[in-house]
């Protein structure tokens, strides 16, 4: 095991998370889960008939990142846009009930809240239905967001940007965020969306997944090569993205192949996947960037932060639904390892 994985030291680092102040910026969504049973195939079409037995709602998108952060620190705030509709009110209520500061959330009567509905039967997703209308912020909304950043960033230890391509994160806001984070010396972690083509310059860490990395690097998708550190196209994608974004750290998540850390002049560092069972990968990236940012804000090295993020992601994919990871679960996993 590499020296970066010192379980006792990593457990000490996670204990420091509770004092950190984290601001999450990005596209807010509401995740709706409809739970049911399948007993027959529809006579109208070759599809299952789902008898609904329950429904549940969770914060989604950037709101789910905030929910993951909130498991580890009470000092969690979120910035984004919600519709002035029943779904938006429900989302804000869930966030406030979780103890997440929603002061910087704007509401817009002209833009409906993004809702992703997943129908689950026999512990499997049958279908997902999306209700959304992507639209960029107006100049007035952008100005409001910038003023909120002026108030929030000096007090924060870390900022997470979760861009899901729904329109909240625009180039002017991205430029303002990067400049403000540099000015105040704050950890800035970006989970980029490859289809927005936003220019990010000088963030602390960029965290695309493999498909996003290839797309942003303008490379055709390619099958993974083992060992990961010898994957020529993956390394080329990393080289291009470091030139494009100029981050201090680039962490590419690789699903069942773990993560690849690229940092300055150091050799590539591969962290193998730790998951024992994979039930649902939805939200695993949210867990990863939450723990990654908390760790960096707590003084972890990039390799230690990546190890912790990878460990937490392995726990998250073993749960069904948009799940979070608790401090007790992460501590237990580190003790087991």
Secondary-structure map with pairings?
Layout: H1 7-15, E1 22-26, E2 28-41, E3 48-61, H2 62-70, E4 76-83, H3 86-97, E5 101-108, E6 114-121, E7 124-131, H4 139-152, E8 158-162, H5 171-184, E9 187-191, E10 205-206, H6 210-216, H7 232-245, E11 249-253, E12 259-263, E13 269-271, H8 284-297, H9 302-316, H10 327-336
Parallel strand pairs: 1-4, 1-8, 2-6, 4-5, 8-9, 9-10, 10-11
Antiparallel strand pairs: 2-3, 6-7, 11-12, 12-13
Helix pairs in contact: 1-10, 2-8, 4-5, 6-7, 8-9, 9-10
Identify the overall geometry: globular
Structural class: alpha/beta
**Distance N terminus to C terminus?**
10 Å
Overall tally of structural domains = 1
| Subunit organisation of the chains | single chain
CATH class equals: Alpha Beta
CATH topology: UDP-N-acetylmuramoyl-L-alanine:D-glutamate ligase
Would you report the number of β strands? 13
Provide tags for this entry.
UDP-N-acetylmuramoyl-L-alanine:D-glutamate ligase; 27% strand; globular; nine-stranded mixed beta sheet; four-stranded mixed beta sheet
Describe it for me?
- With 337 residues, this protein is α/β, with parallel strands linked by helices.
- It has a single domain, classed as Ribokinase (UDP-N-acetylmuramoyl-L-alanine:D-glutamate ligase, 3-Layer(aba) Sandwich), CATH 3.40.1190.20.
- It is 35% helix and 27% strand.
- The protein is built from ten helices and 13 strands.
- It has helices spanning 7-15, 62-70, 86-97, 139-152, 171-184, 210-216, 232-245, 284-297, 302-316, 327-336, and strands spanning 22-26, 28-41, 48-61, 76-83, 101-108, 114-121, 124-131, 158-162, 187-191, 205-206, 249-253, 259-263, 269-271.
- The strands form two sheets. Strands 5-4-1-8-9-10-11-12-13 form a nine-stranded mixed beta sheet, with helices on both faces. A four-stranded mixed beta sheet has the order 3-2-6-7.
- The longest helix is centred in the C-terminal third of the chain and has 15 residues, at 302-316.
- The mean pLDDT is 92.
């Amino acid at each position: 095991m590499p020296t970066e994985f010192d379980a006792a030291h990593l457990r000490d680092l996670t204990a420091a998370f509770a004092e950190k102040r984290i601001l999450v910026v990005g596209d807010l969504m509401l995740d709706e889960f409809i739970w049911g049973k399948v007993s027959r195939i529809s006579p109208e079409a070759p599809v299952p008939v789902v008898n609904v037995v329950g429904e549940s709602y969770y914060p989604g998108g950037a709101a789910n990142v905030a929910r993951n952060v909130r498991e580890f620190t009470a000092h969690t705030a979120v910035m984004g846009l919600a519709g002035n509709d029943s779904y938006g009110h429900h989302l804000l209520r869930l966030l406030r009930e979780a103890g997440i500061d929603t002061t910087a959330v704007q509401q817009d009567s002209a833009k409906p809240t993004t809702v992703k509905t997943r129908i689950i039967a026999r512990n499997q997703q049958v279908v997902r239905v999306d209700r959304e209308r992507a639209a960029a912020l107006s100049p007035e909304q952008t100005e409001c967001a910038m003023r909120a950043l002026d108030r929030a960033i000096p007090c924060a230890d870390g900022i997470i940007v979760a861009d899901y391509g729904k329109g909240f994160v625009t180039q002017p806001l991205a430029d303002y965020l990067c400049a403000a984070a540099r000015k105040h010396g704050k950890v800035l972690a970006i989970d980029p969306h490859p289809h927005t083509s936003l220019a990010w310059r000088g963030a602390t860490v960029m965290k695309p997944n493999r498909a996003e990395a290839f797309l942003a690097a303008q490379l055709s998708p390619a099958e993974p090569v083992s060992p990961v550190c010898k994957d020529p196209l993956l390394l080329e994608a990393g080289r291009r993205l470091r030139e494009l974004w100029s981050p201090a750290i680039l962490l590419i998540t690789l699903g069942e192949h773990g993560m690849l850390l690229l940092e300055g002049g150091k050799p590539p560092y591969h962290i193998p996947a730790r998951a024992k069972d994979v039930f649902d990968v939805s939200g695993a990236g949210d867990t990863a960037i939450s723990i990654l940012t908390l760790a960096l804000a707590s003084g972890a090295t990039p390799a230690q932060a990546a190890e912790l993020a990878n460990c937490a992601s392995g726990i998250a994919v073993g749960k069904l639904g948009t799940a979070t990871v608790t401090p007790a679960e992460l501590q237990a996993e580190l003790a087991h390892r």
